[in-house]
Amino acid sequence: MIIKFQDQPSLHKDISKSLINKFKKKLIKSDFILGDDIKKFESNFAKYCNTKYAVGVSNGTDALNLALRTLNLKKDDEVIIPAMTYIATALGVIYNGCKLRLCDISLENGLINVDQLKKSINKKTKCIIVVNFNGNYVDLKEVSKVVPKKIKIIFDASQSHGCGENGKKANSNAFISCYSLYPGKNLGALGDAGIITTNNALLYKKLLKLRNIGSSKKFIHDEIGFNNRLDTIQAAFLNIKLQNLDKQNNNRRKNANFLNKNIKNKLIKIVQHKKGSVYHNYVVLAQNRKKLIKHLEINNVQTNIHYPFPINKHKALKKFVRGRYFNAEKYAKECVSIPIHPLLKTSELKKIVQVLNSFN
Do both 223 and 254 map to the same domain? Predict the structure, then answer.
């Protein structure tokens, strides 16, 4: 029997009737654009994240683009991002016409290296985008110690819905946080979707306009905006799925704790996570990755790679970046994501451990 990397059909099994009934109601009501469920989901998600405001948008990439748009950045302004992240983090900067600058990561946890970040900041730096990678999260207090107050810190929280500990969400005090709600995320829509959170009222109002073609009232356009609205039907689905997020995140944590305690192979290094991580991915590093993946495949354990290229190695970004980022490059060559989804059985976890420990 194959241990699946993800199991979307099973995740939706218990709520399928609710999702279908909601779709039928929306079909009858036909409020497909900025309908009531948008405001409801925004309110629910803001409350869940312990923030004052949330703005639903079309996807995570657009969330990053709009967040940067609110800063009114200029052509020579520089934005620093980690060298290991999904390409969307970089595209948000490029879409805004700013200069993209990279900072290496810590190989231990895959997060932006704060010591390197301090050295990377210069007079042209106007914004830092930190990435809560693999469901792990960046400590805002730690980053704030090395980043001058005039420089804005944006969280790319696309992989960290609900992360935090002791009842407090990790980036609830952030200036702005951007979330992807892509189907494979911890909180995923049934299509493309995204959302932005903030505690700043002026920023919130600006984002509402930017996502809706620069309009806060029909036919009144105060500025150049974008057609980046969250679909009402996706918001309706997300309101249902949000109710299960904590339970599923806790299952991910339990699964990760089991793996952390039982994987014992000197050829495999576990990427470390803070307490309170939501383990969007569970990643191990292996110098002979190809052999490890083959070993897992033969033993019916599905895998994935997040991600095979650091930002400085993407062909599309060649003219936008410069330099070498050795930790990010090493991570890209060695990383393997193994199953961590919330429906894994104890028997499946034991099998994963057995297969990993038998690798030689």
Answer: no
Using alpha carbons only, how large is the chain's radius of gyration in Å?
20
Q: What is the CATH number of the domain that holds 182?
A: 3.40.640.10
Question: Is residue 45 domain-shared with residue 62, that is, in the same domain?
Answer: yes
Domain boundary among 221, 242, 263: 242
DSSP 272: P
pLDDT per position in the chain (360 positions), as tens? Answer: 899 999 999 999 999 999 999 999 999 999 999 999 999 999 999 999 999 999 999 999 999 999 999 999 999 999 999 999 999 999 999 999 999 999 999 999 999 999 999 999 999 999 999 999 999 999 999 999 999 999 999 999 999 999 998 878 998 999 999 999 999 999 999 999 999 999 999 999 999 999 999 998 899 998 999 999 999 999 999 999 999 999 999 999 999 999 999 999 999 999 999 999 999 999 999 999 999 999 999 999 999 999 999 999 999 999 999 899 999 999 999 999 999 999 999 999 999 999 999 999
The pTM of this model reads: 0.97
Contact in structure between 146 and 119 (CB atoms under 8 Å): no
Report the alpha-carbon distance of residue 49 to residue 171 in Å, rounded. Answer: 8
State how far the Cα of 75 lies from the Cα of 212, in Å rounded to an integer.
25
Contact 113, 326 (CB under 8 A): no
Quote the domain boundaries for residue 343. 246-357
Residue 301 DSSP one-character state: B
DSSP string, 203-239: HHHHHHHHTBTTEEETTEE-S---B-BPBHHHHHHHH
Last residue of a domain, one of 223, 242, 261: 242
